Amino acid sequence: MVRAAIAGVGMVPFAKMREKSLADIGWPAVKAAIADAGIEPKALQACYCGTSLGGMMAGQRILGRMGLTGIPVTNIENACSSSSSALAQAVLAVRAGKYEAVLVVGAEKLTKFGGGTLPLEKEDWEVSQGLVMPALYAMRAKRYMHEYGLTELQLAKVSVKNRKNGALNPDAQYRQAVTVEDVLGSRMIAEPFTLLQCCPTGDGAAALVVTSEKLARKLRSDPVFVAASELTSGRFTAGFRDMTTPEITVRGAAEAYEEAGLGPEDIDVAEVHDAFSIAELIYYDAFGFSKKGEAGALIDSGATEIGGRVAVNPSGGLISKGHPIGATGAAQVVEITRQLRGECGPRQVPGAKVGLAHATGGGISGFDHGACAIHILTR
Amino acid sequence: MVRAAIAGVGMVPFAKMREKSLADIGWPAVKAAIADAGIEPKALQACYCGTSLGGMMAGQRILGRMGLTGIPVTNIENACSSSSSALAQAVLAVRAGKYEAVLVVGAEKLTKFGGGTLPLEKEDWEVSQGLVMPALYAMRAKRYMHEYGLTELQLAKVSVKNRKNGALNPDAQYRQAVTVEDVLGSRMIAEPFTLLQCCPTGDGAAALVVTSEKLARKLRSDPVFVAASELTSGRFTAGFRDMTTPEITVRGAAEAYEEAGLGPEDIDVAEVHDAFSIAELIYYDAFGFSKKGEAGALIDSGATEIGGRVAVNPSGGLISKGHPIGATGAAQVVEITRQLRGECGPRQVPGAKVGLAHATGGGISGFDHGACAIHILTR
């Protein structure tokens, strides 16, 4: 099997870009990734484009802006893990020897398609009963607090950490550090979540050039390698009255660790799917950064800050960097790649050698219809 | 490289199913394909779901109805070639040895999402100027008539042939044969197309079980093999004032023939993308069934009827079987598989050994942003 590498990365700063089209937003990210890889555009043999609400032929429209046409372009929808699912396909194709160089792009424009315009099917009974994402995660938070004594202060610390990190990231949608008082004092959205504990609505794009190890070593001296690429489907809860164990991520994490031959103790830096403050904490447990129920103690310890044992969401995460759905997975890999290359300046995780990216989505039409993509990267 | 096979196929009759959800429509096709393959559902290791307008997590919603969860599910959007692009990914994965058995499902519900509700981006200048699909194809038809002397009668014969075939297909949306007079006398849509020369709006689903040759031979005595699987992007026209040469399909056809080591003379049966009457004729030329400009003579000769040299659209094609966008590519492969197995009863193509399926899409936001998937199957 060919070893797959990330030879180039690029993204546009996440922001609300109401006047731009999806292609306007997407192509500069592609251009940046191609430039970063130092690859000839015509050497790209295929493209996988992740978008959830970008409409028909999103990848073709983005590449069309750059005159990149002819190659196979496959658009992939997997909710919040759309572009990490696209990466999984690219990795599969490179490992198989089908292509030597593949472009992955994730793009989304939520300022246009978001805001309650999602089509609801008749089986969307959860949403019709009020179980929108903030409500679903709020119940998970309440349950975690009830079961394990998690406090509102510990929840708020997730936002404080991620906004602090995001303030150091020029690509982040929100670049202002906040205090625990700011977080707890912001508007209530769904108890216990205040506004600053929820990821924002925004637009953005991120792109990756995925190549064989051989080509990557020709292109640059510091490629990053894909040690694990796992996509799973499943449930966000483990079963009746256990809404604090995301079955889909727990299983995906075990598969990813096995594939990489690594464990939680090996991860130096991780970008995990912190759509809401509780989510990051639940994923501490799911990835084995903490024992089940001890995520509150882990955030208290500072171990997940930059400089701690395992830096989580140094980019600012979804809460601070933003969450344009289809762009998120690729943007996480942009950050992990830059961290492993040591390019992150003031938010650099010292000595980072192994990184993990985790994007998980679904729930609009059933919280048991989820997708989860996990990648482990090494330098 | 592992040889990929189609071990099972299934579909639901295409129809307007306003009261059903996408999952309601999709799961019976999956069930039928699994039963046809005689495979244990738990032996399926991954799923690729093609849908263009089906919304988030379409595949997960469909499989969720059957309790099929846990496996990687990847939703693929490539307009009219969504589920044939999904098949291309499944074939890639099986050939690479990543999976032994993969489910492909295509599903669409146009009665809900069609009807002018497609989101238009600001770069959709073609559509905003009136260049909707019927108008685009109408201009290609007019140009072909001008350049090569194609007649309205020859155009009408495509619909007569395909409706005759569809009348013999229990899965077709329209099962009434029509005469040339019926076709030419039906309501004008976009000159020269009358209503019966345009594919209808409808809903539907089709599914395929794609496996390694080894597993397919264990499951059944008559598997069908994938000799070529090509996905391309590109233009529907060859350049300035040449709108009768679909560059994307011409190039894809050459790639597919090369991959299979076969030529147009080897194809016994083909399902081609007859969204409008002219489309089938243009594709006769593109696939080399006729010399450039001679498609009218080919339809006159009867060579593309069942029993002719190369039977085209024995299922009834998009015009008669229907065209629920994301389901179309998989449904074409259902038909070719059944033809190669000799299961088609009154519409059986005698002695069919090599079949071709062709789905091409895009154009909603630029006719130069197309996708085209071509598969050649052999028994």
TrEMBL record, chains A, B:
Keywords for this protein: Lipid transport, Lipid-binding, Transferase, Transport
One GO biological process term: lipid transport
EC class name: transferase
Superkingdom, taxonomy of origin: Bacteria
Ranges of residues in domain Thiolase N-terminal: 5-213
InterPro entries named among the record's database cross-references: Thiolase (IPR002155), Thiolase-like (IPR016039), Thiolase_C_2 (IPR055140), Thiolase_CS (IPR020613), Thiolase_N (IPR020616)
Name of protein: propanoyl-CoA C-acyltransferase
Transmembrane segments: none
GO molecular function, a single term: acetyl-CoA C-acyltransferase activity
Residue ranges of domain Thiolase C-terminal in the record: 241-365
Species annotation: Propylenella binzhouense
Assigned EC number: 2.3.1.176
